[in-house]
Automatic annotation (TrEMBL):
It comes from Stakelama pacifica. It holds the Pfam family Amidohydro_2. InterPro entries: Amidohydro-rel (IPR006680), Metal_Hydrolase (IPR032466), Metallo-dep_Lactonases (IPR052350). Belongs to the metallo-dependent hydrolases superfamily. This is L-fuconolactonase. One of its GO terms (molecular function) is hydrolase activity. Residues 4-273 form the Amidohydrolase-related domain. Gene3D superfamilies: Metal-dependent hydrolases.
């Protein structure tokens, strides 16, 4: 079985507007690129990856697209656009012409206004996303889930994936009301990423403590759940690419077609990636 990683990051500290990581994150504070990924993934049968923005800047998105153009491993890019800018529809249309741009991700977790995505001034940009066949990566926290449910109902033709399962408070073992809210979005047809959960734990917690969350995600989303590494953010507390992949495979307890769907097929379908040519 080959792996499609639905969520990872590259960055260059020299890119204008770079905000994070900072020197306060010594494991992360260096350039990260395809060769670093290959070294981290080791013998993982990695067939492709989705490169996701890490900076809320146009320059970061342009840098990712230029890198992706010459890197076969990057099969799709999730970029960033200032959705509130009056010229956002034109920017979105221009980006959508790039063959690997598939989705946009406003950094909702960093916006104080939990309801921001529902603002009227964003409607032209979101309509442009829909018109140009793009998707929305929802970088949200549990506080956003009721809002996101209303958003999905308002824009039923815009494909939405919830990044990092909305970052439940795994450090405290809290599962409610996240459990009901995430299930509601699953019932509305949203997709979800099995990613980012290890970084919501404390460094001394075991991956096995994520079992209740993973079980609920599998039961709720079924074949609309996709695995992602969240590399290299994954490494900030010492976790490794291969260990998280092995833990996710073990905790998901999926076999056969379900396993292939979780670790490659769902991401391939959601992002419109090339078919496996094996």
């Amino acid at each position: 079985m080959t792996i499609i990683d639905s969520h990872l990051h590259f960055w260059s500290l020299a890119t204008p507007g770079h905000e994070w990581p900072t020197p306060d994150e010594p494991r992360l504070y260096r350039d990260m690129g395809p060769d670093d990924l290959r070294a981290a993934a080791g013998d993982t049968p990695l067939a492709g990856a989705v490169l996701v923005q890490s900076q809320p800047t146009d320059t970061d998105t342009d840098w990712m697209l230029a890198l992706a153009a010459g890197e076969p491993l990057v099969q799709a890019v999730v970029g960033w656009v200032d959705l509130a800018h009056p010229e956002a529809p034109e920017r979105i249309a221009a980006l959508a012409r790039h063959p690997k741009l598939r989705s946009l991700r406003p950094m909702l977790q960093s916006i104080d206004d939990t309801e921001w995505l529902l603002r009227d001034e964003l409607r032209p940009a979101i309509a442009a996303m829909e018109a140009n066949g793009l998707r929305l990566d929802a970088l949200v926290q549990p506080r956003h889930l009721p809002m996101l449910s209303r958003f999905v109902a308002r824009w039923p033709d815009l494909a939405v994936v919830i990044d990092h399962a909305a970052k439940p408070d795994a450090a405290q073992g809290a599962i409610d009301p996240w459990r009901d809210h995430i299930a509601q979005l699953a019932g509305q047809g949203a997709f979800c990423k099995l990613s980012g959960l290890r970084t919501e734990q404390t460094p001394d917690q075991a991956a096995d403590e994520l079992a209740p969350y993973i079980d609920h995600l599998l039961a709720s989303f079924g074949d609309r759940l996709m695995w992602g590494s969240d590399w290299p953010v994954l490494t900030r507390f010492g976790e490794s690419y291969t260990r998280w992949l092995a833990d996710a495979q073990r905790l998901a307890r999926a076999t056969g077609t379900e396993r292939e769907r979780l670790f490659s097929g769902c991401a391939r379908d959601f992002y419109g990636l090339p078919e496996d040519d094996r």
